[in-house]
Amino acid sequence: MKQFYDIMRVLRMFLATAVIPAALLIVVAAPAASAAETTRHCDIQNASCIMRTGDGMTIEFDVQPKPVAAMTESTFVVTVTRNGMPVTDASVQLDLSMPPMFMGKNQPVLKQSKNGRYEGKGVITRCASGRKTWQADVAVVSAGKTAVAAFVFEVK
């Protein structure tokens, strides 16, 4: 019986150190061919956050009003341009999360308010732990390509 438990222990260690990380590597290393992804830490309390992709697209993320605080209704603004021109045919999704803690789904719906400017209202919830670091994942689908920008910011 001891031999059985020794074999199971070795098998668990093998799976944990070889097979599972390899599977995660495959999932992480194989994003959609047309997606560009970047994570940027930004000071949302003082200015909007900007990310430029390799194909000339600029994604600008902002939250109003300032100071950006938890448990208050906010307006989330994403402005999208390509080579300096507004992108008016995009589908823009916003997903707010608290790394590395699950705080429930928080995906304000963004609609185009004017050329290249997409807006939506929502609330950043307060974390019982006192953490204040949030991440805004912005996905922009336009002309058959997807650009994804992740902005990390602090709330008051």
Brief rundown of the structure:
With 156 residues, the chain is α+β, with helices and mostly antiparallel strands.
General description of the model:
The chain is an alpha+beta fold. The chain has 1 helix and 10 strands; from the N terminus they run H-E-E-E-E-E-E-E-E-E-E. Strands 2, 3, 4, 5, 7 and 8 form a 6-stranded antiparallel beta sheet that branches. It has a 4-stranded mixed beta sheet with strand order 1-10-9-6, with no helix packed on it. A hairpin with a 2-residue loop joins strand 7 and strand 8. The longest helix is centred in the N-terminal third of the chain and has 28 residues, at 2-29. The chain is globular, with a radius of gyration of 20 Å. The N and C termini lie far apart (57 Å).
Topology of helices and strands:
Blueprint: H1 2-29, E1 35-41, E2 49-52, E3 57-64, E4 73-82, E5 85-86, E6 91-97, E7 111-114, E8 117-123, E9 133-142, E10 145-154
Parallel strand pairs: 1-10
Antiparallel strand pairs: 2-3, 3-4, 4-5, 4-8, 6-9, 7-8, 9-10
Largest sheet: 6 strands, antiparallel
Alpha plus pi helix count: 1
- Work out the number of β strands: 10
Instruction: Identify the overall geometry.
Output: globular
List the main descriptive attributes of the protein structure presented here:
156 residues, globular, four-stranded mixed sheet, alpha+beta, 44% strand, six-stranded antiparallel sheet
